[in-house]
Specification:
- The complex is a heterodimer of chains A (about 325) and B (about 550).
- Among the domains of chain A are: about 100-210, Cupredoxins -  blue copper proteins (Immunoglobulin-like), CATH 2.60.40.420; about 215-320, Cytochrome c-like domain (Cytochrome Bc1 Complex, Chain D, domain 2).
- Helices cover about 40% and strands about 20% of the residues of chain A.
- Chain A has eight helices and twelve strands.
- A five-stranded mixed β-sheet of chain A has the order 3-2-1-5-8, with helices on one face. In chain A, strands 4-10-9-6-7 form a five-stranded mixed β-sheet.
- In chain A, helix 1 packs antiparallel against helix 2 and helix 4 crosses helix 7 (about 295-305).
- The longest helix of chain A is centred in the first third of the chain and has 34 residues, at about 10-45.
- With about 550 residues, chain B is mainly alpha-helical.
- Helices cover about 65% and strands about 0% of the residues of chain B.
- Chain B contains 18 helices and no strands.
- In chain B, helix 11 (about 245-280) runs antiparallel to helix 14 (about 355-375).
- Chain B is globular and about 65 Å long.
- Classes of the chains: A alpha+beta (about 325), B mainly alpha (about 550).
- Chains A and B meet through helix 1, helix 2, strand 7 and strand 9 of A and helix 5, helix 8, helix 11, helix 13 and helix 14 of B.
- Bound molecules: copper (II) ion (2 copies).
- One copper (II) ion binds near residues 143 and 189 of chain A.
């Protein structure tokens, strides 16, 4: 495994973070140096009974000094804020075509699921030069996905999805750590992220691929759990058609309009009463306790495949 | 000498030291004298400090080896939890306000006591009972949530006596609130004739600002701990997402208290440093008005930056930007204070006595702590280093390098006033320097390993970080020496130290005008104030008094 490094070139984002870091180190050394130098100079020059003359500063000059350094610090700090904020805003959301890898954290391990259904424990394989998005949730307490080589981190929460995305540029095996204290074996909740070139990654997915991809597994569940009984084409119940749902806007009965993303699909399955689709009765039962986090991932993958066939095909081509 | 004493018999009576107002244990436990209560606090927080220190001593030993030496995961987690809870709530938060604040605030404004002396005693009882209760539960049963009690770990998953520990902290919170109310009332009501607001020493202003933060922030901590207990005990789903709760709600409530709590810990320290710098540079503090305004603005803006603890918690990225911006704003007044202290040295007659050395240690460490705060206020850097040793190092620079150094500066500065004894300055200076070196050896390596990616609260860790951990543990040994040393030479001073006169440092300030140690009523007669603080003339110089 590659060692932890003080300077990282594994992704463009990491380089940006390091650059900001060293800028701040520079500024800090200057300021701390200035303070130390002044203390030493004054300490020597104005030590007790030293011959140096002690002239009182005129009041006018005093005010100028004060105003001077208030505005200088304020200006400097806002400059740093602006620089840092620009860095953050440029990498806010993952590109639409990002490769989604699902992560389920639990005390004290990481489960990963590749788009084609490969399951991994405490390990993530991902291609470089491709935007990769980790779609993460937790089964119990709050954990935190920390990839130091990529200079990124995101808490992983129970009951909702959080996202982390990166576009690595250097292949290799790097540390993966849990950064949020999560109980007894927190420090053992570690693993590795394997970044590979795209051909390597495709080869890996082919050799490891399970017989059914995630979406296919989801389809089986969709039938065995009885979803199709209501949502299927010849259902007796009046339930919405789930084709072309993911990524599209949904009109809810209380007037809100929401976009059907992972979080919405998840809520629809676990807390159907929360968002009722306009024009439908709240007939859908909650599947809380019936489906596991992994099952939800599969169901969502299936629902996504119903409306994002094009995107999936693109990914297929890329491999 | 004897003749005169006989002549002035009534005045000698009133001049009897507060320490001689009864020597029995009961006389101490039922006292309402702010000075004695200050001493009670000092003794209790010292005991807590060494328990918390012992806990982290074991942790640092354990970290000598990447795979641990002698602790299980569970024990390790309990120890750092014990350390955090004790040091934050039972040492740092009460440290300067309840000891030096209690002892000095009334004296500095020319009052006989605080506004509500009995409430003051009750605060101490609440504090000791709550703190002792929590410490016993943690040591006996164990709590391993960390001092932050994050949900749903603390409410649904953690083993151990979470509720009992939280209950103790809850009770201690009321002690903080009562103390805050007391200090605010005292400052408003009991200033001596002529002691206008602009003549208040900066230490008084600092305690005043701290008190405001205490009474506004502590109730929120009480609430959030109550909610944790309700969910853990009765299963009411407040933070549990499986029943519609929100785990992040806890973090918002918690940090809404705990960020201002950082200022509860550092503002009093800033007050101490202003007094010490002025005295040992023989100068008025540079820019008194700016110093007051920066204290107050830190107290106010400090309430609006809690979200900087949650940049990776799942908060909106736009909220992150707002909190980032406000965190830079709150850094400005802190920087101003550093510059003004430095400017205070200009044209002075500087003497490097022990209190001054501790204060200069504060200045250096606080500056580094503040500068690394800028790193953490920058969202992209914080995303990388939050929950790593970088953060651990940062807040120890502020809270230990800053507040604890200031506590020691205060201890050495006012020791002659409090005890009426002098201490060996040589040993004290040796202690100050050891503390500074030990501190840096302990925490500087943590910045490096933190930036490389060493997470905090890790019992076992990648072997690559061992060298930093070993240096850090070696530094801890030095630091431990520096903390134990004062026990010895100050203990010696109590028994054998030379008597101090009223004003051994030739310092300005009402507390130095009365006897050392002061009589119960503080002053022979109520003083009248005619000028501002820090009237250090050209000729007044601190005497070279040593034991
Ligand atoms: Cu963890
Ligand atoms: Cu904070």
């Amino acid at each position: 495994m590659n060692p932890f490094r003080f300077v990282s070139d594994v992704s463009h984002e990491a380089i940006v973070v390091d650059r900001l870091f060293f800028l701040l180190v520079g500024i800090s050394v200057l300021i701390a140096g200035l303070v130390t130098a002044l203390v030493v100079i004054f300490g020597v020059r104005y030590r007790k009974d030293s011959p140096a003359p002690r002239r009182a500063l005129p009041q006018m000059l005093k005010n100028e000094v004060e105003i001077g350094w208030i505005s200088a610090t304020a200006f400097l700090f806002f400059f740093i804020f602006w620089w840092a904020a620009a860095g953050e805003l440029s990498a806010l959301t993952a590109p639409k075509n990002a490769l989604d890898i699902h992560i389920v954290a639990k005390q004290w391990m990481w489960h990963a699921q590749q788009p084609n259904g490969i399951r991994e424990i405490n390990e993530i394989h991902a291609p470089i030069n491709t935007p990769v998005r980790l779609v993460m949730t937790s089964q119990d307490v709050i954990h935190s996905m920390f990839l130091p080589a990529l200079r990124i981190k995101q808490d992983v929460l129970p009951g909702r999805y959080t996202y982390l995305w990166f576009n690595a540029q250097k292949a290799g095996t790097y540390h993966l750590l849990c950064a949020e204290f999560c109980g007894t074996e927190h420090s053992r909740m570690t693993g590795r992220i394997v970044l590979m070139t795209q051909p390597e990654y495709s080869r890996w997915t082919e050799t490891e691929a399970p017989t059914h991809g995630l979406a296919a597994q989801g389809e089986t569940l969709f039938r065995s759990l009885g979803c199709s009984g209501c949502h299927g084409p010849n259902a007796s119940v009046h339930a919405p058609d789930l084709d072309h749902l993911y990524g599209h806007r949904v009109q809810l009965s209380d007037g809100r309009v929401v976009t059907a993303d992972e979080a919405y699909l998840r809520d629809s399955i676990l807390q159907p009463r929360r968002d009722i689709v306009a024009g439908y009765k709240p007939l859908m039962p909650s599947f809380r306790g019936i489906v596991s986090e992994d099952d939800i991932v599969r169901l969502i993958a299936y629902l996504k495949s119903l409306s994002t066939k094009n995107v999936l095909n693109q990914q297929g081509e890329r491999q | 000498m004897t003749d005169i004493t006989v002549d002035r018999l009534p005045e000698t009576k009133i001049g009897e030291s507060y320490l001689d107002e009864g020597h029995s244990l009961a006389s101490w436990l039922t006292t309402t004298d702010h000075k004695r209560i200050g001493i009670l606090y000092a003794l209790s927080i010292t005991a807590f400090f060494f328990i918390g220190g012992a806990a982290i001593g074991l942790v640092r030993l354990e970290l000598l080896e990447p795979h641990g030496l002698f602790l299980t995961d569970e024990e390790y987690n309990r120890l750092f939890t014990l350390h955090g809870i004790i040091m934050v709530w039972f040492f740092l938060v009460p440290s300067i306000p309840t000891t030096f604040g209690n002892f000095l605030l009334p004296m500095m404004i020319g009052a006989k006591d605080v506004a509500f002396p009995r409430l003051n005693l009750m605060s101490w009882y609440l504090f000791v009972i709550g703190a002792t209760f929590t410490i016993i539960t943690i040591i006996a049963g164990g709590v391993d949530t960390g001092w932050t009690f994050y949900t749903p770990l603390s409410t649904l998953y953690a083993n151990g006596n979470v509720i009992a520990a939280a209950a103790g902290v809850f009770v201690v919170g009321f002690s903080s609130i009562a103390t805050g109310i007391n200090f605010i009332a005292t400052t408003h009501m009991l200033r001596a004739p002529g002691m206008t607001w602009t003549r208040l020493p900066l230490f008084v202003w600092a305690i005043y600002a701290t008190s405001v933060v205490m009474i506004l922030a502590t109730p929120v901590l009480a609430m959030s701990l109550l909610l944790v207990s309700v969910e853990r005990w009765f299963g009411v789903p407040i933070f549990n997402p499986n029943n519609g709760g929100d785990p992040l709600l806890f973090q918002h409530l918690f940090w809404f208290y705990s960020h201002p709590a950082v200022y509860i810990m550092i503002l009093p320290a800033m007050g101490v440093i202003s007094e010490v710098f002025a005295c040992f540079a023989r100068r008025k503090v540079f820019g008194y008005t700016a110093m007051v305004y920066s204290l107050m603005s830190i107290a106010v803006i400090g309430f609006m930056v809690w979200g900087h603890h949650m940049f990776v918690a799942g908060q909106s990225p736009y909220a992150n930007l707002v909190f980032s911006f406000l965190s830079f704003v709150v850094a400005v007044p802190s920087a101003i204070k550093v510059f003004n202290w430095v400017a205070t040295l200009y044209g002075g007659q500087i003497v490097f006595k022990a209190p001054m050395l501790y204060a200069m240690g504060f200045l250096g460490l606080f500056t580094v702590g503040g500068l690394t705060g800028l790193f953490l206020a920058s969202v992209p850097i914080d995303i990388h280093v939050t929950d790593t040793y970088f953060v651990v190092a940062h807040f120890h620079f502020i809270m230990v390098g800053g507040s604890v150094s200031a506590f020691f500066a205060a201890l050495h500065f006012w020791w002659p006033k409090i005890t009426g004894r002098l201490y060996p300055d040589y040993w004290a200076r040796f202690g100050a320097i050891t503390m500074f070196l030990g501190f840096n050896a302990t925490f500087l390596p943590q910045f490096v390993m933190g930036y490389e990616g060493m997470p905090r609260r890790y019992h076992v860790y990648p072997e690559q970080f061992q060298v930093y951990h070993v240096i850090s543990t070696a530094g801890t040994v030095l630091l431990a020496v520096a903390y134990i040393l004062p026990l010895l030479y100050l203990g010696w001073s109590l028994l054998y130290g030379n008597r101090a006169d009223r004003n051994p440092w030739h310092a300005a300030g009402l507390e130095w005008e009365t006897l050392s140690p002061p009589p119960k009523e503080n002053f022979e007669r109520t003083p009248t104030v005619t000028s501002g603080p820090y009237s250090y003339g050209e000729d007044a110089e601190p005497q070279a008094h040593t034991a």
